[in-house]
Design a protein that fits this description.
The complex is a heterodimer. Chain A is of the alpha+beta class. Chain A has helices at 9-13, 15-25, 35-38, 62-74, 127-134, 153-159, 166-169, 203-207, 241-253, 266-276, 296-311, 324-335, 337-344, 360-373, 400-419, 438-441, 444-457; strands spanning 31-32, 55-57, 78-82, 98-102, 109-113, 118-122, 139-140, 176-182, 188-192, 216-223, 225-226, 231-238, 260-265, 286-293, 317-320, 347-350, 377-383, 391-395. In chain A, 36% of the residues lie in helices and 19% in strands. Chain B has 15 helices and 17 strands. Chain B starts with a strand and ends in a 15-residue tail after the last helix. Chain B is α+β, with helices and mostly antiparallel strands. At the A-B interface, strand 9, helix 8, helix 9, helix 11 and helix 17 of A face strand 8, helix 7, helix 8, strand 17 and helix 15 of B.
Chain lengths: 475, 397
């Protein structure tokens, strides 16, 4: 079980005064102190860990965020920033003596500029709402995490979120132009703007993915892109994980970077098919969903090339969508994957390591062996082009022994990712979940260097302090 | 003046550790082809990475390459081309523009984060730095990122070190994402536009679904270097062989309201974009300064006009967002350009200027006080004794 820092007794003792102070900054229902109303904030998308905060505050302006942080800083109060709380790594898990700063009420789209291809929005705008605001003009915001209906852009910045289409379009960091952030000292700082690239230090790059430890993001300027003429998907089933992996290599080796290249193993195919009835090949050991973009002729030409490559690998199933509807049907199972697993298992962990793609078959084999040894079921659904694995470990949290085995298996899988040359997290963030594994990827010098940067922004370690870095003795 | 030229990371570590112990500043550089950029560094000793060279890992199917910092960019690009791949950010080589000799290194490209025309769609150098090894100011080896395409494990020091001009740590090895080079390319070219019309045309091109990967405007003077008699507005396509003619035709349709566009086929297009990338369409006179200004694209034309009115020459890239300028090294022109950049919501970087004002004028915009405090603390977190390229970007940092 994960450990949290010892709550500050003096802060807990001043709870009422602190809540009253917050109410002076954000009036009315913008401050939550009642235990029952705090309940929804005690956890995030990693729902096995729960800890109610001391209070929640829901500011509506950057100025309020600045006042809140200045107040918390002056009072030595820890702060946990929160967007929609969809983090799968426990990034928004509160601490008992913390104030959660929720950005959900900062949900205004401030500016859309088609000539300069950018939009400025408040941190609480959902990922999909940005695309929703610009799609009538044929534009979109590229990163598309599976939680995009709910997750907020501020949280995407905090975690540097990815998605199924980042092989072509990049992750959050590659699609940002500017940020308004507030430091723990209450200073409002504008980073970047509507132009490309910093002239001095790349604070935008450092802040993106800093998991709320360096500053609180209140406004974000994102690039919006003109969408392609169209997109179409195909599905290919293969006899083994090895063969499917070799086919991925062959596609990329031919100089083709599909806009999406998703991999599902046999357990994932069966779970998704039972849930979505997408017509997935139940006789396949592994399946690829491959999507290309362009005009109808371009789609046909590219899919034809990919189909010919797939045929070299004895596919047990090959289905090229002829229409947008058929593409949607192919995606339907993949997009419902979490629901599908939720249907067959009371709980699951969605892991998020990345591996060198050349180590794919070996890694999947070893995950299978480790799962069998732990007497747990794992299905694998992942972004094959970039090696970002999402093993889903199924368990029942009410069965303490099984829960413990699932936690241990998850840690072992992530250590395996590091061992084969990869990393602990490709797009979900370290949060609380992978914090204690950081030592497997970084040595003490690397971690101390990162901690020193945290200290430079937040000398008192008040901003999301229990995340990302293993707790130091005495914390 | 001592020149340290270690051949490996251990040698870099030893040189930095010795400098740290003695509190002696180091001028950290690759081949020195960008030594005219920003502020001059006052250091008794130079640490050159040029001898730390060589590709250490190249896995084309994984789209990654790792190389030591001193690897010449030309050698790296040749190795990638051998496997049909390329550097996504298309980094420029400014040696000829700036009048310096030498072959730029990978470390120098990463330390300066200078990206070429493809920046607008492909991303900057910093977007493709997947992993770094570096020696910080106390002589410790630090690493960040790794060799995989998606990685959010811990703070992203790759991005912080990219573009930090050697002021935080000495890069020793870098892993980059690379991509297959496009099968074909061509440009759709409008002749004789004003800068304002050109930016509007390029905005329409970039707002089209045809994947424009370069969007530049050359006023008549710069266009003349390419042998053209009038201003050129160029939109580049890079794609599969069958797609390029189709997309060029459609793009010409998008631009029809701006004029009748020519199609420049592969060789002519490549030659033009190489000259744009390296800013060879600018021909600074001896003693002239060179500025690189990044602004909101729709405001690029006004920055260009303001500088031209004070005697500068220039051109636009990135659909108007990048304004490359050269002109007499006068305070008047410098303040005109910096004021115009600020009005246009952007930033500037001085690529070359007389020594006399490199240490007094702002080579990049000053940071707001709250950020400047953080800069100094972050500098100290890497380099507590202030020995790595001190003062290169900001005085005292």
């Amino acid at each position: 079980m994960i450990s949290l820092p010892v709550p500050k007794a003096d802060v807990l003792a001043r709870r009422e005064a602190i809540v009253a102070g917050l109410r002076r900054i954000v009036p009315g229902e913008g401050v939550i102190g009642d235990a029952l109303l705090l309940k929804p904030y005690e956890t995030d998308g990693l729902a096995i860990y729960r800890q109610p905060p001391m209070a929640v505050v829901l500011p509506e302006t950057t100025a309020q965020v600045a006042e809140i942080l200045r107040f918390c800083h002056a009072n030595g109060v820890r702060v946990v920033p929160r967007g929609a709380g969809t983090s799968l790594s426990g990034g928004a898990l509160p601490l008992a003596d913390s104030v959660v700063v929720g950005l959900a009420r900062m949900n205004q789209i401030l500016d859309i500029d088609y000539a300069d291809r950018c939009a400025t929005v408040q941190a609480g705008v959902t990922n999909l709402a940005i695309t929703g605001a610009v799609q009538d003009r044929g534009f979109f915001y590229a990163p598309d995490p599976s939680s995009q209906l709910a997750c907020m852009i501020g949280g995407n910045v905090g975690m540097n979120s990815g998605g199924a289409h980042c092989l072509k379009y990049g992750v959050t960091a590659n699609n940002l132009l500017g940020l308004t952030v507030v430091t723990i000292e209450g200073e409002v700082i504008r980073i970047g703007g509507a132009h490309l690239d910093a002239a001095g230090y790349d604070w935008l790059g450092l802040l993106t993915g800093s998991e709320g430890m360096l500053a609180v993001v209140t406004e974000v300027t994102v690039r919006i892109l003109r969408g392609p003429e169209g997109a179409r998907a195909m599905l290919a089933g293969f006899g083994s994980n090895e063969v499917a992996g070799a086919c991925v290599d062959a596609i990329i080796g031919a100089g083709i970077i599909p806009v999406a290249l998703e991999f599902m193993d046999r357990p994932a195919i069966h779970a998704c098919e039972a849930f979505a009835h997408a017509g997935y090949p139940l006789n396949a050991a592994a399946m690829l969903i491959i999507e290309v973009e362009g005009s109808l002729e371009e789609q046909a030409a590219l899919l034809g090339r990919i189909e010919r490559i797939c045929l070299d690998f004895d596919p047990v199933s090959l289905r090229v969508a002829a229409t947008a509807e058929e593409s949607a049907a192919i995606w339907k199972g993949r997009k419902g994957a979490f629901g599908a697993v939720g249907r067959i298992s009371p709980d699951y962990f969605c892991m998020d390591g990345t591996i060198p793609t050349s180590r794919l078959p070996e890694t999947l084999r070893r995950i299978g062996e480790m799962a069998a040894a732990a007497d747990l079921q794992v299905c694998n659904i992942f972004h094959a082009g970039d090696g970002n694995l999402h093993p889903l470990i199924m368990f029942d949290a009410n069965n303490a022994a099984q829960f413990a085995r699932a936690e241990a298996l998850g840690a072992d899988i992530l250590r395996l990712c590091v061992e084969v040359g990869g990393c602990l997290t490709g797009e979900h963030g370290v949060g609380i979940e992978k914090r204690d594994l950081m030592g497997s990827q970084f040595n003490a010098v690397d971690l101390d260097q990162q901690r020193a940067i945290k200290t430079a922004f937040d000398p008192g370690w008040l901003l999301n302090p229990a995340k990302v870095f293993p707790l130091l003795p005495g914390a | 003046m001592t020149l340290h030229s270690p051949v490996d990371e251990a040698g870099v570590q030893a040189a930095v550790a010795a400098a740290y112990a003695a509190r002696t500043p180091l001028l950290v550089q690759g081949a020195g082809t960008k030594a005219t950029m920003l502020r001059p560094v006052q250091a008794a000793h130079t640490l050159s990475l040029a001898a730390c060279a060589g590709v250490t890992l190249y896995a084309p199917k994984e789209l990654i390459v790792s190389a030591r910092a001193g690897t010449s960019l030309a050698a790296l690009e040749a190795e990638l081309a051998g496997a049909g791949q390329h550097m996504i950010a298309e980094p420029p080589d400014y040696a000829q523009l700036l009048g310096v000799d030498g072959a730029q290194t990978l470390g120098g490209v990463v330390a300066t984060n200078l990206s070429g025309p493809r920046r607008i769609t492909g991303g900057a150098v910093r977007d493709h730095v997947l992993g770094v090894r570096a020696v910080n100011g106390t002589g410790d080896v630090i690493k960040s990122g790794g060799r995989v395409l998606k990685n959010v494990t811990g703070l992203d020091l790759c991005k912080l070190l990219t573009g930090s001009h050697g002021t935080l740590a000495v890069l020793t090895e870098i892993t980059l994402k690379v991509l297959p080079a496009p099968e074909a390319t061509a440009s759709v070219v409008l002749l004789g536009q004003t800068a304002e019309a050109a930016v509007a045309a390029l905005s329409a091109a970039l707002g089209s679904p045809y994947g424009v990967s370069g969007a530049a405007y050359l006023p008549a003077e710069a266009a003349g270097v390419l042998g053209a008699g009038q201003a050129l507005t160029l939109a580049r396509l890079e794609d599969f062989a069958a797609s390029v003619p189709y997309r060029a035709d459609r793009l010409r349709g998008v631009l029809a309201s701006f004029g009748t566009a020519e199609i420049w086929e592969a060789d002519r297009s490549r030659a033009a974009w190489a000259a744009i990338r390296d800013a060879l369409v600018l021909q600074p006179e001896a003693g002239w300064a060179v500025w690189r200004v990044s602004v909101r694209p729709s405001r690029g034309a006004e920055v260009l006009a303001a500088a031209q009115a004070e005697g500068a020459a220039g051109f636009l890239d990135w659909g108007g967002g990048l304004v490359m300028l050269t002109g007499p090294a006068t305070e008047c022109l410098h303040s005109t350009i910096t004021a115009a950049a600020l009005r246009a919501g952007g930033v500037w970087t001085v690529l070359r200027a007389p020594a006399a004002w490199r240490s007094v004028a702002q080579m990049v915009p000053a940071e707001v006080p709250a950020l400047a405090v953080i800069s100094r603390r972050v500098k100290a977190a890497f380099d507590p004794a202030g020995i790595l390229n001190p003062g290169r970007i900001f005085a005292g940092v």
